[in-house]
Write a structure and sequence with these properties.
Shape of chain B: elongated
CATH architecture of chain B: 2-Layer Sandwich
Radius of gyration of chain A: 21 Å
CATH topology of chain B: Alpha-Beta Plaits
Strand order of the largest sheet of chain A: 1-4-5
Strand content of chain B: 15-25%
Oligomer: heterodimer
CATH class of chain B: Alpha Beta
Largest interface: A-B, 43 and 32 residues
Radius of gyration of chain B: 22 Å
Structural class of chain B: alpha+beta
Number of domains of chain A: 1
Order of helices and strands of chain B: HEEEHEEHEEHH
Number of helices of chain B: 5
Structural class of chain A: alpha+beta
CATH class of chain A: Mainly Alpha
CATH superfamily of chain A: Cytochrome-c3 Hydrogenase, chain B
Largest sheet of chain A: 3 strands, antiparallel
Distance between the termini of chain B: 61 Å
Number of strands of chain B: 7
Number of strands of chain A: 10
Helix content of chain A: 40-55%
């Protein structure tokens, strides 16, 4: 990228500091860019501004108390974060989750994926330089989903709704009708984003060929989720190691071809459509009545000694929970494998040689949630 | 150019739709009955005293330790010529709303259904100038239920299983 003519002028490299409080860093993320003119020569990311020690805190509490902290590790897709933790506890305790609870969990997790991806679409639009319009579109669609979550769980972002064994309480009686209603507006929202971005020449010119990462490099960095699939690797935990009822559901794993910023956007857009399909199938298969918790639940859940690693597909990639128990009512060790942290490692590889404005675009395209990176 | 035209058409199409925004401080959205704001104590209207006996169950179960509970002997107990069957009753109760993370665990562990999450707008509009003002005492916690302002929806896990 650096032209020969530019080399003739011996200029000094400039270090600029981006963040930690900066709207385009999606939270409290700081990176120091070493730039030569407009070109990025090096990126040094600094994380840890939002570190709360959620894992260590969970080790001081019983299993139910930990759920609230798991919500906060990934606040844009709290259901997915809860799911991994709760499934890890269930695997240790040997709990059998009733079928109906599993369908409800699946529907809620997919809806949460949709709301998180809409959030990405909106924020990504702002990163590309479109002020406002896509951002509000994203929030508009997300609002409908979050209203539904509020009716079911009572909270808009920190649900604390999944429990080891099932769900905290039953869904509302008009659950299916409400989900169908929301799906309708989601479908319209997907159409809107498709029309707004996908063929827009300005957007394509801004994003095609920017922030390239090859499939080999992406795997080496441990990337997962849509950021990895955009490079052409069909890796999806839902397909590879089906959990809940994903084995009974028919869906496609979306992959990109070029591994650039545009593909990372387009993968997510198509994933939205797949999620809608998954939810429709779930609604058809979900029984209307039935238990949502196992018959006999102890008042204080204790797990036998052992260790387990459970991974699920969160909107940003593989969200894993490693849980060690020494036989008590609380985790002996809890480790969260966050997709964002691994995806963030590839930031340098993707943004070196790009323009400064594109470095922001690359950061936006991996869709980081800083509370998940720092935990 | 075709793509840009399509993009502009998408924006244009929103003009024909109804607005989705609300004029928030003036217009409040109707809250679902399960809505969870901050925890409140409930008032037993029949005997005219709080349901809470100060048993510390919620205080022990709270993940963020935002509660402080003190109990006392009930001056209205039958043994001393009163009308209540509660031997012990709540003396002092503080909840630090600044610490509370609204996880609903205190409601689930309560044996007397004495605590509930506020499901009205008063629970959401609690901003104050000093964070010390967010520590609520017994009188503040009980006042809304005493006045009958709380719609009860107390989801308890034990009842469902």
């Amino acid at each position: 990228m650096v032209t020969e003519r530019a080399r003739e002028f011996d200029t000094q490299d400039l270090l600029i500091n981006v963040g930690p409080q900066h709207p385009s860093t999606h939270g409290v993320f700081r990176m120091v860019l070493e730039i030569d003119g407009e070109l990025v020569k090096d990126v040094i990311p600094y994380i840890g501004y939002l570190h709360r020690g959620a894992e260590k805190l969970c080790e001081t509490m019983d299993y139910r108390q930990g759920i609230g902290f798991m919500d906060r590790t990934e606040y844009l897709a709290a259901f997915n974060a809860e799911l991994s933790y709760v499934m890890a506890v269930e695997a240790l305790a040997g709990l059998e989750v009733p079928e109906r609870a599993q369908w409800i969990r699946m529907i809620l997790c997919e809806l949460n994926r949709i709301s998180s991806h809409f959030m990405f679409m909106g924020a990504f639009g702002v990163d590309t330089g479109v002020m406002g319009t896509p951002f509000i579109y994203g929030w508009r669609e997300r609002e409908g989903i979050i209203d539904l979550f509020e009716e079911i769980s009572g909270d808009r972002m920190m649900y604390a709704y999944f429990r080891p064994g099932g769900l905290a309480w039953d869904v509302t009686t008009n659950f299916k009708a409400r989900v169908r209603e929301v799906l309708k507006s989601i479908t319209q929202g997907i159409k809107d984003f498709d029309g707004l971005f996908t063929e827009n020449e300005i957007f394509v010119a801004r994003t095609k060929g920017v922030g390239y990462i090859s499939a080999e490099d992406a795997i080496d960095y441990g990337m997962s989720g849509p950021s990895l699939r955009a490079s052409g690797v069909p890796m999806d935990v839902r397909q590879d190691e089906p959990y809940l009822k994903y084995a009974e559901i028919d869906f496609k794993v979306i992959t990109g071809e070029h591994g650039d910023v545009f593909d990372r956007y387009y993968c997510r857009l198509q994933e939205l459509r797949e999620s809608v399909k998954i939810i429709e199938q779930c609604l058809a298969k979900m029984p209307d009545t039935g238990p949502i918790m196992p018959e006999k639940m102890p008042r204080m859940l204790r797990t036998p000694p052992g260790e387990v690693y459970i991974r699920t597909e969160a909107p940003r990639g593989e969200y894993g929970v490693y849980l060690v128990s020494n036989g008590g009512n609380r985790p002996y060790r809890l480790k969260v494998r966050s997709a964002c942290l691994s995806n963030l490692q590839a930031l340098k590889q993707m943004s070196v040689g790009q323009y400064v404005a594109d470095a922001i675009l690359v950061l936006g395209s991996i869709d980081i949630v800083l509370s998940e990176v720092d935990r | 150019m075709k793509g840009i035209a399509k993009s502009l058409l998408t924006t244009l199409s929103t003009f024909s739709r109804k607005p989705v925004t609300r004029d928030y401080p003036n217009v409040h959205k109707a809250l679902p009955e399960r809505d969870r704001a901050f925890p409140l104590l409930l008032w037993d209207q029949d005997i005219d005293e709080p349901f809470c006996t100060g048993c510390h169950a919620c205080e022990r179960a709270c993940p963020v330790e935002c509660m402080t509970v003190l109990m006392k002997d009930n001056p209205n107990h039958k043994s001393v010529g009163g009308t209540s069957s509660r031997r012990k009753i709540i003396d002092k109760f503080w909840i630090d709303y600044a610490r509370c993370m609204r996880c609903n665990i205190c409601v689930e562990v309560c044996n007397f259904d004495a605590i509930a999450m506020n499901n009205t707008w008063t629970g959401h509009e609690t901003s104050v100038h000093d964070r010390k003002d967010l520590v609520m005492d017994l009188q503040m916690l009980l006042s809304q239920s005493h006045a009958g302002a709380i719609k009860e929806w107390v989801p308890v896990m034990a009842r469902l299983t």
